[in-house]
Design goal:
- By secondary structure, this protein is mainly α.
- The protein starts with a helix and ends in a 5-residue tail after the last helix.
- It has nine helices and no strands.
- It has one domain.
- Bound molecules: protoporphyrin IX containing FE (HEM).
- Protoporphyrin IX containing FE (HEM) binds next to α2, α3, α4, α6 and α7.
């Protein structure tokens, strides 16, 4: 109990919370991507997978856990950001972070806001949208992603997710002290490879659904 209160009340503890929650979300993304790649296999495989997920007895607690992880990751990050701002009322002309500024690190706040907006829109449309028939989640997804406006929106957001992950993964490793000069280049490269692979694999779905398959179910 004392350890938990030390984590929640200290700055390094809060940073570790953000890092650990971020790594858990990377795990969710990996699993979610694997399931979504079944869209390439066809309606039978994807709808069977969706049916298994939706009838999983612990679905509600898992969904509540996931929502808490996303909200906590965002809320503690915002809290740390404002705390750092308060401790440094006069901003530096150039903000320097260990390991140098990258596209990923300097756009972190913007990609974070975009991802949160995306998740809200995404869950409303894909989870609560109207399906062609109750068991046809494939038809719903292909209906949206077959429209070029949704396909372009999804592809752009997936790029932003890659950018966010490219810095987030490395930053989480640093927080846990995995920034030894001997291993840092390998960890950074693994983080970048993960970010690029996740972004490209997710983006391949709307590109295929709209521009290759032409929106046909
Ligand atoms: C092309 C990319 C994606 C596709 C095709 C896709 C597809 C889906 C589908 C079909 C559902 C509804 C599942 C169901 O009702 O059984 C869903 C839910 C969800 N997706 Fe995605 N997704 C994509 C990318 C993402 C990304 C990048 C994120 C996170 C940043 C994400 C986060 C979520 C969340 C949080 C849910 C709600 C899970 C639940 O409450 O059960 N998705 N997605």
């Amino acid at each position: 109990m004392e350890t938990l209160s030390r984590i929640v009340t200290s700055s390094i503890g809060r940073k570790m919370m953000v890092a650990a929650l971020g790594l858990l979300l990377c795990g969710f993304l990996g699993g979610h991507l694997a399931g979504n790649l079944l869209l390439f296999v066809g309606p039978g495989a994807f709808n069977a997978y969706a049916h298994h997920l939706e009838t999983f007895p612990l679905l509600l607690p898992v969904e509540l856990g996931l929502a808490s992880i996303i909200l906590l990751h965002a809320a503690v990050t915002v809290y740390l950001w404002f705390t750092a701002l308060g401790a440094r009322p006069v901003g530096y002309a150039v903000s320097v972070s260990k390991g140098g500024r990258t596209w990923g690190s300097s756009t972190m706040i913007y990609t974070a806001v975009l991802i949160l907006v995306f998740i809200a829109v995404h869950v409303l449309t894909f989870k609560y949208g109207t399906r062609p028939s109750p068991e046809d989640l494939y038809g719903l997804v292909m209906g949206y992603l077959g429209d070029w406006r949704w396909a372009v929106f999804y592809s752009l957001v997936m790029g932003c997710i890659g950018l966010h992950l490219s810095h987030g993964f490395w930053s989480a490793c640093q927080t846990f002290g995995l920034d030894h000069p001997k291993y840092a280049p390998a960890i950074k490269a693994a983080g970048t490879a993960f970010a690029v692979a996740v972004a490209l694999a997710f983006a391949s779905i709307p590109v295929w659904a709209c521009f290759i398959k032409g929106g046909r179910p």
